[in-house]
Amino acid sequence: MSEAVETSYGALKVMEEGEFAGWRFWEGDPFETRSGPFFYRREDDGSYVSAFRAEDRHMNGGGSMHGGCMMTFADFALFAIATDALAGDHAVTLNLSGDFLGPIASSALVEARGEVTRGGGKTIFVRGTVTGDGKPALSFSGIIRRLSKR
């Protein structure tokens, strides 16, 4: 990994090899690292896409991705989608809700895309969709709150 941007809550890094070479990820968030790792990048149209590869450890007892895993990924995606609105500021999740639309199997490419529906101030509203191999699995919306600089 290279191109690290250090913050008080971790380091933004870029993967150098593998399936997600060139994608960014946060190193230093113990829960997120253990849950994912999750990655994001800017698309040619200026939007952001988040992704990870589903593994057996992400599945529930029924053999589909655990809903908690999908929601954890959606929480990560909130911040990726809002990258430009955040302008480098730290923020926290105020609200996250989701509607489960379908299953995700192990080995699927899991992606999240969305949009900021209202931003620019301290409160940023985001909505998006998580897919597994291109099929809708979770519709989500969230509110994040920019924190004041100390």
TrEMBL record:
Q: What InterPro entries does UniProt report for this protein, alphabetically?
A: HotDog_dom_sf, Thioestr_dom
Q: State the source organism's domain of life.
A: Bacteria
**Biological source species:** Erythrobacter neustonensis
Pfam families xrefs: 4HBT
Ranges for domain Thioesterase come to 62-131
Q: Which CDD domains match?
A: PaaI_thioesterase
- What is the official name of this protein in its record? Thioesterase
Q: Which GO terms fall under molecular function for this chain's record?
A: thiolester hydrolase activity
